C-alpha cells in the first residue's frame, strides 16, 4: 500500500465518524421517523387487561380517531402524563392504553395478572384514568411491531386504522398543541363528515 493511501484512508474514516457523531449532538432523540407512520396498525390479537376473556384486534381502531398510549405503572413519566391525558378524555378524546409490565419479563421476575390489575387500578384511581380500555401487550410483540422503544409513547391513529403521529415521551399541553391538536381535530371533522383520507 502506498504512503498516500495509508494516510488518506484513516483520514476519510475519521472525518466520516466525526460527521456521524456531530449530527447526534444536534438531534432530538424524541424526534425520529417511525417506521410505521402512514401505515396501518399491525395485526394483533391481545387480551383486555381487566377482562382477559375479551380479545382486541387492530379492528378496534376502525371508525374512530384514537390516541394509543403505551404505558406501564412502573414508568414514572407515564404517571406524570395521566392527569393531562384524563383531561383530554373528558374533552371527548378517545384514548386506548397499550399496557405492558416489566415484571412479567423473566429478566425482572414474575407477577400475577391479578397483581398487575390491582396496581393499574390503584394508579388510575389516584392519578386519573384516561383509557376507554387497556390492551395487554403481554410479551410486547405489538409494541415492537409499532417501533416502540419505551414508555410513554403515544400514537395518533385515524379512523381508517392508519398511524398518523408517533410521539416519544409524555403528552402535555405543549406537545398536544404542537404535535396532535390540529391533525386530531381535522381527522375527527373528516370522520363526522364521512370523508376518507
Helix content: 25-40%
**Poorly predicted runs of 5 or more residues:** 26-33
CATH topology: Glutaredoxin
Shape: globular
If you average the pLDDT, what whole number results? 87
- N-C termini distance: 59 Å
Question: What is the total domain count?
Answer: 1
Text of the CATH class = Alpha Beta
Describe this structure in words.
This protein has 197 residues and is of the alpha/beta class. It has one domain (34-192): Glutaredoxin, CATH 3.40.30.10. Helix content is 40%, strand content 16%. The chain contains 5 helices and 7 strands, in the order H-E-E-E-H-E-H-E-H-E-E-H. The protein has helices at residues 3-25, 76-90, 113-127, 141-145, 173-192; strands at residues 45-47, 55-57, 66-71, 95-99, 134-136, 153-157, 163-168. It has a 5-stranded mixed beta sheet with strand order 5-4-3-6-7, covered by helices on one side. The protein is globular. It starts with a helix and ends in a 5-residue tail after the last helix.
Write the layout of secondary structure elements.
Blueprint: H1 3-25, E1 45-47, E2 55-57, E3 66-71, H2 76-90, E4 95-99, H3 113-127, E5 134-136, H4 141-145, E6 153-157, E7 163-168, H5 173-192
Parallel strand pairs: 3-4, 4-5
Antiparallel strand pairs: 1-2, 3-6, 6-7
Structure in a nutshell:
The protein has 197 residues and is an alpha/beta fold. It has 5 helices and 7 strands. α2 (76-90) links the parallel β3 and β4.
List keywords for this structure.
single chain; 197 residues; Glutaredoxin; 5 helices; Redoxin family protein; Redoxin; Thioredoxin_CS; disulfide oxidoreductase activity; redox-active center
Amino acid at each position: 500500500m502506498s504512503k498516500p493511501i495509508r494516510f488518506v484512508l484513516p483520514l476519510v474514516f475519521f472525518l466520516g465518524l466525526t460527521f456521524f457523531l456531530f449530527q447526534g449532538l444536534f438531534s432530538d432523540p424524541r424526534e425520529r421517523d417511525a417506521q410505521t407512520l402512514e401505515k396501518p396498525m399491525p395485526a394483533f390479537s391481545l387480551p383486555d387487561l381487566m377482562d382477559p376473556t375479551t380479545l382486541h384486534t387492530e379492528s378496534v381502531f376502525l371508525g374512530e380517531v384514537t390516541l394509543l398510549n403505551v404505558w406501564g405503572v412502573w414508568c414514572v413519566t407515564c404517571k406524570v402524563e395521566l392527569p393531562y391525558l384524563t383531561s383530554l378524555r373528558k374533552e371527548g378524546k378517545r384514548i386506548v392504553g397499550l399496557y405492558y409490565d416489566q415484571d412479567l419479563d423473566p429478566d425482572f421476575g414474575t407477577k400475577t395478572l391479578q397483581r398487575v390489575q390491582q396496581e393499574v387500578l390503584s394508579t388510575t384511581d389516584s392519578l386519573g384514568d384516561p383509557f376507554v380500555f387497556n390492551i395487554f401487550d403481554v410479551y410486547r410483540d405489538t409494541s415492537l411491531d409499532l417501533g416502540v422503544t419505551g414508555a410513554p409513547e403515544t400514537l395518533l391513529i385515524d379512523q381508517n386504522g392508519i398511524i398518523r403521529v408517533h410521539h416519544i415521551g409524555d403528552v402535555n399541553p405543549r406537545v398536544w398543541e404542537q404535535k396532535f391538536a390540529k391533525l386530531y381535530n381535522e381527522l375527527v371533522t373528516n370522520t363526522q363528515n364521512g370523508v376518507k383520507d
